[in-house]
TrEMBL record:
Organism expressing this protein natively: Thalassospira alkalitolerans
Family, as annotated: Belongs to the sigma-70 factor family. ECF subfamily.
Domain RNA polymerase sigma factor 70 region 4 type residues, every copy: 119-166
GO biological process, one term: DNA-templated transcription initiation
Protein name: RNA polymerase sigma-70 region 2 domain-containing protein
UniProtKB keywords: DNA-binding, Sigma factor, Transcription, Transcription regulation
InterPro entries: RNA_pol_sigma-70-like (IPR039425), RNA_pol_sigma-70_dom (IPR014284), RNA_pol_sigma70_r2 (IPR007627), RNA_pol_sigma70_r4_t2 (IPR013249), RNA_pol_sigma_r2 (IPR013325), RNA_pol_sigma_r3/r4-like (IPR013324), WH-like_DNA-bd_sf (IPR036388)
One of the Pfam families matching this protein, by short name: Sigma70_r4_2
Domain of life: Bacteria
Residue ranges of domain RNA polymerase sigma-70 region in the record: 17-81
């Protein structure tokens, strides 16, 4: 089942940036022919679990977990046609962009920079720097503090605020997939919001 998404969301710069980043992330990990389907699965999962994002302390890790799970699901499905997951991952004919799939890279959070960089690029410089270094490149907070000549408590405070702002951007561009019939959608029903009147965005 594919969740409906409003045209306002589809054309949201942040939503498009997230989708673009996911395409780049997935393209390096699954066969090109399957990229769109896997990205669609990831986006649908983000919508379905939007409520959990509201309580996430680290939205980058939250997105990564969903992407990793959906990519793993893809290979599990593929494994049924290759006898088992190990054979599927090691099949020399299973190529991405003329390179054999690296099963370790699939589980590597470092590649998440491809996924979230387009979205983070729209944030303030200070937020961009700290999110990229700590959440995407996995730099230790102590190293970040030493490199920038600031004390550790300041780093902890800045990364916390940056993560909150990233989470807010994700929530703002992500449609609410939990709406039930006969309930008002989060944006309010009306033609301008592409709402069908039953609480579901169309």
């Amino acid at each position: 089942m594919t969740l409906p998404i409003s045209q306002e969301t589809v054309h949201s710069p942040d939503w498009q940036a997230l989708k673009k980043g996911l395409l780049g992330y997935v393209h390096k990990r699954v066969p090109e022919r399957d990229c769109d389907d896997v990205v669609a699965d990831i986006l649908e999962a983000i919508i379905r679990h939007r409520a959990k994002l509201q309580h996430s302390d680290n939205p980058s890790a939250w997105i990564y977990a969903i992407a990793k799970n959906k990519i793993t699901d893809h290979f599990r499905k593929t494994a049924r046609r290759h006898n088992n997951l190990k054979d599927a991952m090691n099949d020399p004919t299973f190529n991405v962009a003329d390179q054999q799939i690296n099963k370790d890279d699939i589980m590597s959070i470092s590649g998440l920079a491809i996924c979230l960089s387009p979205l983070i690029a729209g944030m303030d410089r200070q937020d961009r720097l700290i999110l990229k270094a700590i959440d995407l490149e996995e730099m230790r907070q102590t190293d970040y503090a030493a490199h920038h000549g600031i004390i550790l408590p300041t780093v902890k405070s800045r990364i916390q605020r940056a993560r909150q702002r990233l989470r807010n951007r994700l929530l703002a561009c992500c449609p609410d997939g939990s709406a039930q019939p006969n309930q008002n959608c989060a944006q309010g029903c009306g033609p301008e919001n592409q709402c069908g009147g039953d609480g579901n965005v169309i």
